[in-house]
Design brief:
Elements: E1 2-7, E2 10-23, E3 29-37, E4 40-50, E5 56-67, E6 81-95, E7 100-114, E8 119-123, E9 127-131, E10 134-143, E11 149-157, E12 165-180, E13 188-203, E14 208-215, E15 220-223
Antiparallel strand pairs: 1-2, 2-3, 3-4, 4-5, 5-6, 6-7, 7-8, 7-9, 8-10, 9-10, 10-11, 11-12, 12-13, 13-14, 13-15
């Protein structure tokens, strides 16, 4: 067990595993592993592994309240992160650096959180599908601080974990996207209500976002500019 494990500044807790690795006659190996987080069993991996090339895996990953914050270390600077747990069974096949992953993931009390921007949005407790290492969003609903949903469609392609690609469409009306008090990392705080229609695509560390955002009249928020200068001739132009 690795105690107080931190990956890329993202705390993972106490992470441990028990692994059984037995040879087969064809040169591959049986793999049977139990994954634990804070002494609780959160996943099992069962299948075969062949030590050729970069390593070939043919296995199933069964998740039991699997902590979704494990993926936060792959998000640059933890601008956003996940909280909550996932349930389901995924098939894993192919080379370790380019696994073909398929299955269905059930979200349990899952939230998307951005501390700097005062955003906390929960996912509806609905299943999401993974096909060929692409997380598919099919009219997925997210809720911020009121009952108005943000509807999302598209996919997250994590075929290459070092270069994950996102392509989604989003729509929301009277969406309370910000409801937060000021904290040490705040860049925006207060209350913000918006109508939003947009799209986001590209690698997760260099996303392109286009769309239309209407800030509604019941908004009362503060945005703090950091490390920026406003000169007398430009003042607030294009801010």
């Amino acid at each position: 067990t690795i105690h107080n494990f931190i990956y890329e500044n993202a705390p993972m807790g106490n992470v441990g595993a028990e692994v059984v690795y037995m040879p087969k006659e064809d040169g591959s190996h049986y793999v049977d592993a139990i994954i634990r987080q804070d002494e609780e069993e959160v996943g099992t991996l069962t299948g075969t592994y062949k030590d050729e090339g970069k390593g070939l895996l043919d296995a199933e990953l069964a998740m039991n309240q699997f902590p979704l914050h494990f993926v936060n270390g792959f998000v640059p600077d933890q601008i956003v992160g996940l909280q909550g747990a996932g349930e389901g069974t995924l098939s894993l096949h192919g080379p370790l650096d380019q696994l073909d992953i398929n299955g269905e993931l059930y979200l349990d009390s899952t939230q998307l959180v951005s501390v700097p921007y005062g955003v906390s949005m929960r996912f509806a407790d609905d299943p999401v599908t993974i096909e060929h290492s692409r997380l598919k969003f099919e009219s997925v609903e997210m809720f911020a601080n009121n009952d108005a949903p943000l509807n999302i469609s598209g996919n997250l392609d994590f075929t290459d974990l070092g270069n994950m690609m996102l392509d989604i469409r989003m729509r929301a009306e009277n969406f309370k996207i910000i409801d937060a008090k000021e904290n040490a990392r705040s860049e925006a705080y207060g209350k913000a209500f918006v109508n939003f229609y947009g799209m986001m695509n590209g690698p997760v560390d260099n996303l392109r976002m286009r769309g239309k955002l209407d800030v509604l009249g019941n908004t009362d928020m503060t945005y703090g500019m950091r490390d920026a200068e406003l000169t007398a001739d430009t003042q607030l132009d294009e801010l």
